[in-house]
Design goal:
By secondary structure, the protein is mostly beta strands. The chain has no helices and nine strands. The strands form two sheets. Strands 1, 3, 6, 7 and 9 form a five-stranded antiparallel beta sheet that branches. A four-stranded antiparallel beta sheet has the order 2-8-4-5, with no helix packed on it. A hairpin with a 4-residue loop joins strand 4 and strand 5.
Length: about 100
């Protein structure tokens, strides 16, 4: 949970584990017109992001994103429009291939 303003993204550490897949979901209060969520590698490369506009965001909405490496990542939550509170949830599951 946290608070968003258009000027300052909020960041969380995500310790990605080899053979795991992730779902990242965020919802903001009505004062945030558009919330954006991205997962960044330790080098700043975008690994996954949401593709919709609005007060809710699902990173890579069509399927979980998976990793074959032990890699630290960062979840970045930003407001494109408005300020207010938000909640974020990260779900982790085994890779469908069983890696």
């Amino acid at each position: 949970e946290g608070a968003l303003t258009p000027e300052q993204p909020v960041r969380f550490d995500l310790a990605m584990t080899r053979g795991r897949c992730y779902r990242v979901i965020a919802v903001s209060d009505p004062n945030v017109g558009d919330i954006e969520v991205r997962v960044l590698s330790q080098r700043g490369t975008v690994l996954a992001s949401d593709h919709e506009q609005g007060r809710s965001a699902i990173v890579q909405p069509d399927r979980p994103f998976c990793t074959d490496a032990e890699e630290p990542a960062t979840i970045e939550v930003a407001s494109r429009e408005g300020s207010g509170a938000f909640a974020l949830e990260v779900l982790s599951m085994a890779s469908p291939g069983g890696h």
